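To the team - flavin mononucleotide complex, inputs and output below.
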Amino acid sequence: MVFKYHETTKHAQQRYARSLGYMDWSMQPDPFRVYNGAKTIKLPLAIENSTPPYHLLDAQLPSAPLLKESISQLLQFSMGLAAYKESGGSSWAVRCNASSGNLHPTESYLIMPPLMPEQDSKSSIYHYRPKDHALEELASFETAFWKKLPENSFIVGLSSISWREAWKYGERAFRYTQLDAGHAWQAFVVSAKMLGWKVTRLDRVSDADISTLLGLTQKDRFFEDENPDMLFIISPEDISPKLSIDALVENIPLKFEGIANKLSPSMQKWDIIPAIEEATSQVQIPQPTTLRSEIKKTPSRESKDVVLNRRSVHVMQKDISTITKEQFHNMLASVLDSQDAKENSAHLAIFVHQVQDYEAGLYVLVRNFRDKGDLEKEMDAKFSWTHTEFEHLYLLQTRDLTSTSKAISCSQDIASDGAFSLGMLCNFTNQLKQHGAHRYKELYWECGAIGQQLYLEATSMGLSGTGIGCFLDDDMHRLLGLTNNRYQILYHFTVGRGYVDSRIMTRPAYS
Ligand SMILES: Cc1cc2nc3c(=O)[nH]c(=O)nc-3n(C[C@H](O)[C@H](O)[C@H](O)COP(=O)(O)O)c2cc1C
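Output:
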């Protein structure tokens, strides 16, 4: 099913993946989930909180206590609104986590130990409502589960409403939904670092258990399907990704408070989407990690300013998009190690357009040496694989790739007018055969997390970036000389200097 879905939803010049081809505004889904009838808890805004400089986030920072205020900051600087944009009489919210087409399929939930005195000994499950920066209490219950964890640990669950993406993108929507989940995950990782907290994704938890924890199995509370993505523990300490949550799941109440709002009056069905959701719902047991980066970071702004000012650009200023070698290296170093407990699977095939001291051409950043020999064998035999001064980066071919990268990115100028653009090239068939179909989602999460990190790194250096989900899959594979699906490109990204459209006004996210 995964191989079928992936092939079916490839974009090609003569045939884009199936979608309506236009937007039916009467069916536009609400981007904000609300649980009607659930108790709402307003969170204090964290905008005045001081946060560590962005370049120090990887240092061992002191951990914040677990309080309503710190939870509020975590959420505001990960899944919260960053601003409202206004133009031509319409207005829309932008958030700290990027999302394809700003459609935001990802919802987030907290599972908290007893925090407030009025909770007695009760643990609680909350849904985060970014629009009002509030929590909705869905359930409260007793559990001894927290004894297994260091003090001040709690759980975040992510889920997705793929209809929000399918409304616009049709059958390819499942891919975007998973990339967005990866962006949200990395947004949490960075926001947690600001508080000296660590994020560990639990890689043995079944989708069924995540659904139980988030109340998603209670179908009578939902109009549109909402599917489980991932669970992570946030804690002052490192936790084993193997941690079992059985002791928690057995204490979850059968019935939660609140009925999920209806997002659209009606829905267009794409049969392949529930089919791929079902096929990828069984998790299999994984393996250990890989490369670490040792690059010295350039002093930067306060981290909250970086996450709040992250934006996609839709026009690059070609004439001034050249970046320095150090900026380029910083960007690459920031995505060398994966947040995941599993091995990195995504490598970066990079089109260098305008980077000082680098010749224009095709490069590859190998993020896992397990694959290096294999990549050399699979890719075009003419590639030179010349070492560069950045340890894991190889020059394959010098060449002007501006028009090629634009053509491959669905003719989008942003891919050619920046300093560099790239495709995330994943070890595909072997990973799926080894780890099972659920790995398909995990590969997209890894790519989404890389995308979110690249956005933030670019923002921290005064540069701009944009995720590119629209690309011609097999044209990119042909360029790399790939003749089978052992490696597949799952996501593109571009970096440069963006053009700020002064006609678009910005208003604060929360009054
Ligand atoms: C997975 C993904 C795919 C995207 N694909 C494209 C794309 O092909 N072209 C584009 O101009 N923007 C693309 N974007 C950028 C989104 O449109 C942008 O994130 C969204 O409008 C929200 O704006 P913001 O990033 O400024 O918050 C993509 C973003 C994500 C996360």
